[in-house]
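Exam review. A common question shows you a sequence with its structure tokens and asks you to describe the fold in words. Practice with the pair below. Do the first one on your own.
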Amino acid sequence: MTLLFALLGMIPAQAPADDLKKEAEKLRLQVRELQDRMGQLEEAAVHDAQLIQRLRAAIKTLELASHVDPLNIPPAPGNVGGPVAVIKGRVIHVDSKFNFLLISIGREKKLQIGYKFEIVRRVFDNDNPDGRLQKIGAAEFEKYIGEEQSTSKLRVVEGTAAEMKIEDEAVALRAVEARPVEPAPPVTGPKNGVYKITGLAGRAGSTGFTINYGSTDKAKQTDIVFVYKDGVYKTKLRLDTVTKEFSVGNVITPPADAEHTPEVGDQVFIRELQKAMAGKVALVDEKRGLVATDLRQRDGVHIGQRLEIRHLGQKIGILSVTDVQAWGSWAKLEGDTKLEVVQKGDFVEAVDGK
């Protein structure tokens, strides 16, 4: 009987020992799993470190070989240094330390290495209430920037980046097309400061026009010129290409109607006509040999004022004012000017001071 009680007393003492043994085995399994996991993480860390080292070496190689940029399109054969079409953007970032700019146009414009941009700024003053473009400097295209390549990096080659500002305009210097525009008329030096549209720059419907106004006449790229026909204003052109003897201008704002569309033969002025003293022939008095104009006393015309007279844009003579009235003025012919070639409606403009 005593032996039975002794055996019964041993049973509860063995149960906790079995539980502990099972818990210890479970812990050993967890430790092994953690050790295996740690080994995997260490291997991954080594792999990542090696990848980072390779990437750093590749970036350094690209920086050292910066003249080779796989994102840029190589210059096309026969390219003469600029795009044929008008390309404009705006400055969106200026780095004065490293002398470069970022502009708002990218791969969609198909820029090429070496394309040169003039950086210009619109300046407003009393003489130019609508604003005039002032050149700040120049920069050359180097590469596209960003994952979508929607912006471009330009290296400043004229002036300094410190002089340039965000929102300045970047205008690409255009190449002169090798093929002739229309049948190109003979380019001759304009006479007496009268410039004309001599042809279309491109196909029919183009907004570009050739003008016999070149660098020898002090024309500069980005200049704004004014188109008139017999003294009636049509539109403004911006000079995008300037050569020694002629320039190519593009319409800034599309004309409101066909009457304001520039045509071959239209007159081109470097300043707005209304700022000069100009008018028209009102009457030709064959008996007295005099010409009446609509230039009035309040326009500032005075006796002795010399007026150039033009018919369909061609100079036909010089007049000298002899009498000034509230309604207009009388003028006599000067030099070899012939009265029979003067017609009502001909354009007159002062050629000396008021």
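Now try the second one, then compare your answer with the model answer below.
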Amino acid sequence: MDALSDMLRVVGLTGGIFLDARFTAPWCVAGQVGPESCAPYMTPPDQIVCFHFVVEGKCFIETSEGVSEVEEGEAVLLPRNQLHRLGSDLKVKPISAADIMLPPEGVGVPRIVHGGGGEACTMVCGFLGGDAHLQPLLATLPPLLKLRVRDTPGGEWVAQSFRYGAQQLANGNPGAATVMSKMSELLFVEAVRRYLNTMPEAHTGFLAGLRDPAVGKALALMHTQIARAWTAEELADAVNLSRSAFADRFTTLMGQPPMRYLTGWRIQVAGHKLREGRQTIAQIAFDIGYESEAAFTRAFKREMGVPPATWRKDRLKSAASA
């Protein structure tokens, strides 16, 4: 299994459909996926990716990075779930999507039927959610990914499945949302893979590390076996490189040595577990590879500025007052 697949397995990526939308020109809406849209599928995720798949017609999407046209059979994904506008004409004053959303009919999903009666555009809107482990990947993706579904492996089948699923959603078929959640996950993985393949060779950072066979395998090992007492020598052996060659390649692509990256990754995972509040600090320390609570506390304070108990208390207090 490659590093990308390993990472997505670790983060528990879950897809869901939150809206069946039918527009007629002229129209323009503004929106962003809220945690409440994820409720039928999962507890509110730490990270949300929004996507729209155009079943029929075409539209434009505007983000902070600019405007892109989306045609029938294409999907757009917003890895950081930023506020965006969709419309047949983006000069039209946007309406909040939440204000025109209709409740589901029976066991279906919420709907939007909106517009001026002109050219039709039908789309399925969804999300992908994951825990804090997903953040390193999302942070290095562009604000918007566009994918022509037909061009993907099995793309014609995927496109037909989305169309069929959209029809079943409209008819209130209780199994359609589950099927389309899996299709959502396929869309995301394929969109990321295609982006990886188009990145310049000189690109550095997390995605460049994932693309590199040796560094990608090392990342997969660190992410899936976080509690193991890894050394740079063991990781180098696992990817069939000398210690110095591995350390140089990892540092060049990732911007930091492998052991420094592993420490940062462990602290990220620890922060997620601390926010969840279900484990003791000693249990968290053991789960992420520290031999004692004291060693973990020292490492956490060094990275975050405060001990884990204080950090947890502050986060829980902030959540309660929000």
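Model answer, second protein: The longest helix spans residues 176-198. The chain has a mean pLDDT of 86. Full marks require stating both points clearly.
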